[in-house]
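**Folding the chain**
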Amino acid sequence: DYGHAVVQPGSKSTHLKAIAAALKVDLRRALFFDDLPHNIRTADAVGVGAAVQVARSSGVTLDDVRRALRRCRERGQQRGLMARWITTAPPASGTTKRPRPPTPQDEPSK
């Protein structure tokens, strides 16, 4: 028994979704660490907030956690920007082009 960790064979996608459902956590707010690149790609594909590849020799380091938190925060900002852009009014009649999507740099300073 690994406490909160669950190690099992099978689909990483199914596994991550099951963990999120059991913990009642939105995958977009989850951090995932693994030493295998294909598991990192799978976690990114299912929408994990941040997936960080770690060195097998050192495991998860404080720098890995900081990197994951930074990625999760950046992805959250990007999702918010895209959501606002998608829900804005359509282009004025006679034009067919929407303005470019915003970037985090477009956000006003707090």
The longest strand covers residues 31-34. Strands lie at 31-34, 50-53. DSSP finds three helices and two strands in the chain.
